[in-house]
Structures are given as C-alpha cells and as structure tokens.
Amino acid sequence: MPNELPSDYADRLGMIYASGVSAEHKKSRGQFFTPTPIARLMASYSTSRGASVSILDPGCGTAILTSALAEHLAKNKSLRELHLTAYETDVNLISFSERSLAYLKQWLSDRGIVLSYILCVDDFVLQHSKKNSESGLFDIIISNPPYFKLTKDDERAQAAKNVASGQSNIYSAFMAIAAQQLRNRGEIIFITPRSFASGNYFKSFREYFFSTVDIENIHLFVSRKDTFGRDSVLQETVIMKGRKCKGNAHKHKIALSSSHGMKDIEKPSVKIYEASELIDFNTKEKMLHLPTTEEEERVIRLFKSWDGSLQKYNIQVSTGPVVAFRSQQFIYEKYRNGTVTLAPLIWLHNVNKMMLEWPLEKPAKGQYINITDGSKTLLLPNKDYILLRRFSTKDDKSRLIAAPYFSRTTKAAFIGVENKVNYIYRPDGKLEKEEIVGLCALLNSNLFDTYFRTFNGNVNVSATELREISLPPHEQIKYIGKTIIDTNDFSTTYINELINEIFELNHITYE
Ligand SMILES: C[S@@+](CC[C@H](N)C(=O)[O-])C[C@H]1O[C@@H](n2cnc3c(N)ncnc32)[C@H](O)[C@@H]1O
C-alpha cells in the first residue's frame, strides 16, 4: 500500500496471520493483536526525547507496538537511533514479525533514523531467569503481553519468583520482569486486564510494581466488548504507563482517562489524581482504584475517611469448607432422618440479598449434609453468620450479594457452607443481631457495590478483599442494623435510602 505507516502494515500482517490460525492456537499462546488506535494511544504516552533510544517489546507479535512507538518517537527531530529487543515464542509468526520490522527499518531509514534489532525467538519469562544480570537496560518497554493463568509449579512462575511470587497470570510476570529491566527513569507502557488491581493472587506483584514504578497514566476501557472486539476478548482492559523510580515517596500524580471502547478513544475524559488517591500505599493490599465518575470518586473518599475494618471489630471472613465434588458421600438431596443426622448445606443459589432461601431445590445441589465423623471437619457450628456469594455472574446487577444466617434456621448442631460461599463470623464469640443485619445491609448496598467496582474488574469476591475493606464506625453499623430490624423493612430500596441518608449521599445516582 503506498505510504502505509509501519503500524498499519503490522496490523495488516497481524490480521492475515490471525485469520490463518485456530482459536486454540491463539488461546494457548494468549495471542490477541493490538488494534492500531490502541497501539497509537499507548505510544503517545512516551515523552522520551533522546537521540538514541533502546526499546524492549516482549511478546511482540507483528511488532505493532514497536511500530506505533517508533512513529511517535520519530516526531522528535533529534532522534537518530533506535535499538530494539523483541521476544516472540510463536515460531510460525516470526516471518511476519521479521517482515514488519524490515518495513519499519526502511521507513525509519527514509527519515534518517537507524533501527537495529534483535528478535529473540525465546520465552521472555524464562530468558529473564538466565539473564538476570542484564537488568536496567531499556529506555522504553512497551507490551501487550499474553494473558493466561500460570500454575504455581509452571516453570515460568518459578522463573519470575524473585520479582513477584505467587504469579497467577503470565501478564503480571511480564510486567514485573519488564520493570526490572528498565533503566532508572525509563518508561514502561503495558496494556493488560485490570485484574491485577486487587486480590490476593496479584498482591506481591502490586507490592513490587508500585514500589518500583511511578504510574503516570492509566487509561481504562470501561466496556469489555469493544476493546479487542474482533478477537472477542471479554476483559476489562487498562493501559498503564509508568516510570522507573528508586525509593520515591509516591508523591506523583496520575492522569486517569477512560473510554468505553475504541470508538471514543480519541476524546477520553481525563482527570488528574494524587497517586495516593488511587493506590492504597498504606495498606498491605496496595489496591488500585479506578474511578470513572464523580460519584465513584466521592465514594472512594468516603471509604478513605473510615478507619474501621472487620479485623478491628474482631470479625473474620472465610471460605465455605465444603467442596461439593469431594464431599459427594455426605450430601443429600432430600431430608431424611433416622439412620442419618442431616444439617443444612448452603450453596451460592441459597444466598440472596438480605435473604437466605433454604431449602431451595436445584439439580445436583443437595440441600443437606450428613453430620458424621468423616464430615465434621467440613462443618461449622450452628451460629449466626453473614453468608456472601464468592462469585457474581456478568448479568448480576451487584457484585456483593449477602444474606444473614440465624441459627434458628435449624435444630442441627452444625451447618455446611459450600465452597462458592464466604461466611463472616466472630471467631471467639458471636455476632450480635444488629451487627449482622447492619453489615449485611452495607455489603448489599449500592454504596459498597460502587466502591467494590472501583478496584475489582471481575466477578469474584475474595475473602482477602473483604478483609481489607474500610468500614464505618462499629456503632454506625449497629445503628443501621437496629433501624432495619425496627422498621422491619429488609428491601434493598429501603437499605439504599437509609445508607445514603446516613452517609449524606442522597444526591448520588449510581450507574
Ligand atoms: C497478546 S499478544 C500481543 C502481540 C503484540 N504485542 C500486539 O500487541 O499485537 C502476545 C504475544 O506474546 C507471545 N507470547 C506468548 N507467550 C510468550 C512468552 N512466554 N514469551 C514471549 N512471547 C510470548 C504470543 O505468541 C503473542 O504473539
């Protein structure tokens, strides 16, 4: 194509390649090519002005990111040399990567800029463990890494262990290793799912990354569908640009922008935040909040003003110990008595907002569990609890769905809680009724759901996230509980009205 830009050429090669390989080929390699508008947006975050710039593009595909970055850097008239190191493991793709880089080399040469490159047909993560000593090499690292889960014993998880232990996904291994290979003040630009923002799996990654890199720009794609629409990647995605820092006090600012997808990518709304407003530097979790509306911002401020927590109120949250497929011999569909002693077994579908619906028959979800010597370690004493779903579906309006459980539900001495349900309890005592209803109401409120969504972009609700959540003063929680009990109105409409009134959020309309 006449005068075709290298990024457009790389995009065309990518589309040709992608149309010739199977969905399984792409999935197993985490191979989804970046559309050109996104590649250009990512490149535009670089402010590098050097005459000679070294670039790393790990998981380069057809080098669309390098191409877009080179086009951006070439606007700087003093640029003379680019030195690229790229990694790609898909051997069938390499001839496409080569073609793209040859085209880019010529394009740059026509502008008086020399491109030298090394294309490593190697695993970026495994290479890192061998090349540890070469860290601190690059001025700019740009990447759309593969995304897929790594098991603990995967050799790539092992290789990345010194920069971020307990890797749950290959993309965070890429990011952590990249941060290590950046020179001081060098730039890192990644597009990834937003799942690293919270949760236990990414905790050590966040600790390492946020203490090594000052985040300067974040762009959030609010719609799951639009970003990589042609590859149907259903993930909420973020672009993050940062700068390597050494021992800084996190006093920098972050420009947070968002767009629904690609259509409105060129005119995103941008807001500047203090880094400490978005990243919880002072907590162990180091969660990253990504508010996209003023309401969400106000809600984050309100939570930051609270210093209560489950731990402070001597309340614990744990995951239901009954793993159904391992406990089949103890589970019963129908109530029976005489030869067995049955207790209620609570599943996810029994837990609704402010209401436990048990028994509620559903195929293969037996509502009873046998109390025997073999099952006792799986059972909980029959006390009062709050039960909370660990997963919501994409169609659920709310991520947090909690029901009070009162011991009067059954005469049995124990109850079973299935593994997709979390339970909240006081380890060495009991929860008061007001506490249960008050906390349950807060968890089910629009207020908590809105807060939760600012850091959690998926459908899981982990016990760790709940342990870290800030809570209002204990007395206020009990007051909410008492008011609901006194009015005997457990509807979500009333709960939201009450909570909005108490926290002076009346004029907030949640999305
Ligand atoms: C999400 S794609 C992105 C490709 C390209 N950077 C782009 O933006 O279009 C990730 C690429 O990384 C490659 N890849 C997967 N695992 C890798 C690894 N361990 N080391 C290097 N490359 C890898 C895949 O084959 C794939 O081409």
Any descriptors?
511 residues, alpha/beta, Rossmann fold, 9-stranded mixed β-sheet, 5-stranded mixed β-sheet, 21% strand, binds S-adenosylmethionine
Question: Could you explain the architecture of this structure?
Answer:
The protein has 511 residues and is of the alpha/beta class. The protein folds into two domains: 6-292, Rossmann fold (3-Layer(aba) Sandwich); 316-502, Adenine-n6-DNA-methyltransferase Taqi, Chain A, domain 2 (Adenine-n6-DNA-methyltransferase TaqI, Chain A, domain 2, Alpha-Beta Complex), CATH 3.90.220. The chain has 16 helices and 20 strands. The chain has helices at 6-20, 23-29, 36-44, 64-73, 94-109, 124-130, 155-159, 170-180, 203-212, 275-278, 294-305, 433-444, 446-455, 463-468, 474-487, 492-502, and strands at residues 52-58, 81-87, 114-120, 138-143, 182-193, 213-221, 237-244, 253-259, 269-274, 316-319, 331-332, 342-346, 351-352, 355-356, 368-370, 379-381, 385-389, 402-405, 414-417, 421-425. It has a nine-stranded mixed β-sheet with strand order 3-2-1-4-5-7-6-8-9, with helices on both faces. It has a five-stranded mixed β-sheet with strand order 11-15-12-19-16, with no helix packed on it. Helix 3 (36-44) packs across helix 4 and helix 12 (433-444) packs across helix 15 (474-487). The radius of gyration is 26 Å and the shape is elongated. The two termini are 45 Å apart. 44% of the residues are buried. Mean pLDDT is 91; it is low at 230-234. The structure holds S-adenosylmethionine. The site of S-adenosylmethionine (SAM) has 24 residues, from helix 4 and helix 6. Residues 14, 29-34, 58-61, 64-65, 87-90, 93, 123-125, 144-146 line the site of S-adenosylmethionine (SAM).
